Amino acid sequence: MAGGVDVTTFELTAMAIKLGIVLLILLHVAPIMVWAERRICSWMQNRTGPNRVGPFGLLQPLADAAKFIFKEEYVPAHVRKGFYELAPAVSIIPAFLTFAVIPFGPSIDIGGNLVHLQLADLNVGFVYILAISSLSVYGTIMASWASNSKYAMFGGLRATAQMISYELALGLSLVSMIMVYGSVSLQEITQAQGEVFAFFPSLPKWGVFLQPVAFLIFFISIFAETNRLPFDLPEGEAEIIGFHVEYGGMKWSSFFLAEYLHMTTAAGFLTAMFLGGWQMFPGMYTAIVALGLEGDALYWTMVGLRVLSFAIKVMVILVFFIVVRFTLPRFRYDQLMHLGWKVLVPIALVNIVVTAYMISFGWL
Fold first, then answer.
1. What is residue 40's three-state secondary structure?
2. Residue 316 covered by a domain
3. Which domain, by its residues, includes 127?
4. Is residue 54 part of a domain?
5. Residue 280 · residue 289 · CB < 8 Å
6. Is the Cβ–Cβ distance between 281 and 193 less than 8 Å?
7. Cβ-based neighbour number of residue 316 at 10 Å
8. Longest dimension (CA), the chain
């Protein structure tokens, strides 16, 4: 018992609250990102952007959602219906599951009970994300095969080859991070990034500073993994192909939502591994101390700012996704595969060897 509440009841209640908050946020990611994408694109191209539905066009995503919900669910006669219906679910479910191990805040003490601001504090969280996120490729290839269309199949084969290729580079880039931090738990890796360099006390030991090469490889790889420009060849609207070319209505929007969910998880994963996770930005702690807060006020202010720091880092990465989309042209497919297999993978392998060498001499 803790504070008159059974421990099991408290844990179940805390889990239900965390699950509700995370689901609420994830479900709102797609409409917010759609609005931001249109608005940022309009700024970059000197256009007005959405401005009709609601103030500043903020209600445009709701109008789009209503359109998809009430749009006729047309199923082409030539598709393989069972797999055709199942493919959107296979794509979207892993997108929800992968965020479960992303720590979005520190562990907090509530009435003597420790609550992790993380849905599942797995000691193999790093492996869990790679395993579950790789399942989404089955939804892609299932959709393309079930569509029974050569254009959909072209997109599905491209997506499968691309995602498998860049998963290798992505995984190898993270091996050096495991070597540096000595753990595969995202919570432990985030906590380790709270330390500072002895020769530069104002610089935190974030992964991006310890492993800049791994950060760059990981950052490029998540663009390919999420099928975002300049790696959006699986969709290739200009070439009239795409693994979901035979889909419409809510089924198509499920693939659309899955893409934004994967982007959010990738941004959270990148933040946890390389940008300090929920660790505050340099200088924030000094500013809090200057306010003269004490006791519970100081404790909960620290918790709130750590969660806010994580959210800001994720939002900055998502905005960068958008900026890149309207800045860089699409790669040719041979260029995409060349970059993955002949550039990123060899560099990641060399980085692992160099990291092992530096650790053996105590330089890391």
1. helix
2. yes
3. 75-360
4. no
5. no
6. no
7. 12
8. 69
Residue 114 bridge partners (DSSP): 109
Domains identified in the chain, total number = 1
Q: In this structure, are residues 91 and 139 in contact, taking their beta carbons and an 8 Å threshold?
A: yes
Write out the H or E segment, with its range, that includes residue 266.
helix 249-274
Q: Which residue has the tokens 């797995």?
A: 122
Residuewise pLDDT in 10s, the chain (364 residues): 444 456 688 888 888 999 999 999 888 888 889 899 989 989 988 888 888 888 888 888 888 888 888 888 888 888 888 899 899 888 888 888 888 889 998 888 887 788 888 888 887 777 888 888 888 888 888 988 999 888 888 888 888 888 888 988 999 999 999 999 888 888 889 999 988 887 777 788 899 999 999 999 999 999 988 888 888 877 766 666 778 888 888 888 888 888 899 899 999 999 999 999 999 888 888 888 788 777 788 888 898 999 999 999 999 999 999 999 889 888 888 898 999 999 999 999 999 999 999 998 877 7
Backbone φ, ψ for residue 334 (5° rounding):
-65, -35
Residue 246 maps to a domain:
yes
**In degrees rounded to 5, what are phi and psi of residue 357?**
-65, -45
37 belongs to a structural domain: no
